[in-house]
Write a structure and sequence with these properties.
There is one protein chain. By secondary structure, the chain is α+β, with helices and mostly antiparallel strands. The chain has one domain. The protein has five helices and ten strands, in the order ααβββααβββββββα. Strands 1-2-4-5-10 form a five-stranded mixed beta sheet, covered by helices on one side. Helix 1 packs antiparallel against helix 2.
Length: about 250
């Protein structure tokens, strides 16, 4: 989880981000940028290219990696369970690569579930190796629709044990037949859901009691003041650190 210093940096970064009149809410790369600031990790320019590997932030000093998500929920109280997409998993197309050469949509739920878990595990293992990660986590920022309350949750992220899962199709409430979602449960609790039409894999997480809560007032800068402040800061940065990465600004 976060240190006291990092909790303070998280709050400051959220306040500063929400103050920008060009940002509606904290999404995707905005959350990644905030997290790099919180952890004091160098941040690359997304215009230089984006990796398809699992970890959005890696601290080479501690060999720690985080897969980052930002989600809006109605209920962000500890104990609430939520689902979110972790991977596009076209396991039928990749059946041979996964070691299931005879896999089809009509295969048994347990065989499909095993292939889905294998697909996810391969992503974790390959990314850990490629990104030199030893300590693996999910770092999730939860927020409410009004953007005043935020929770940071952190979970260990390691390969799953397929033998612990029982897989079964959901039941269509209207027809009573198999639905489109394959659920993977551990001890009767749904942990994974794979939708065969979209080929998307969802994971369940429960908000822990130790989640870091941040409440803020939404104070927004006027656009004129925002632009002037940013341009001034850019000029100062270029003047203080002249280099190829900080070209002269034509303002």
């Amino acid at each position: 989880m976060l240190t006291e210093n990092e909790i303070g940096r998280l709050r400051n970064a959220i306040v500063a981000t929400i103050a920008s009149p060009v940002i509606g809410s904290i999404e995707d790369y905005t959350w990644e940028a905030i997290f790099h600031y919180v952890k004091d990790i160098p941040l690359s320019d997304p215009a230089l290219g984006r990796s398809k590997l699992l970890y959005d932030a890696v601290d080479i000093r501690t060999k720690s990696g985080w897969s980052l998500k930002s989600l809006q929920l109605n209920n962000i109280k500890p104990g609430n369970t939520f689902f979110f997409v972790i991977q596009r998993a076209d396991v039928i197309k990749k059946a041979v690569q996964l070691g299931f050469p005879n896999l089809a949509e009509g295969s048994s739920p347990q065989e499909l579930g095993a292939a889905i878990i294998q697909h996810w595990n391969k992503k974790i293992i390959a990314s850990k190796s490629a990104q030199s990660v030893v300590h693996s986590y999910e770092g999730i920022l939860l927020k409410t629709i009004r953007g005043r309350e935020y929770l940071y949750c952190e979970y260990p992220l390691e390969p799953l044990e397929a033998n612990n899962f029982a897989s079964a199709w959901t039941v269509d409430r209207i027809t009573g037949k198999d639905g489109v979602g394959l659920q993977g449960s551990v001890s009767g609790r749904v942990e994974l859901v794979w939708y065969k039409n979209q080929k998307q894999l969802f994971r369940a997480r429960t908000i822990p009691s130790e989640a870091v809560t941040t409440n803020i007032e939404r104070v927004r800068l006027q656009p004129d003041r925002y632009v002037e402040t940013i341009l001034t800061a850019l000029q100062e940065q270029v003047s203080d650190n002249p280099s190829e990465n900080n070209p002269e600004l034509n303002i």
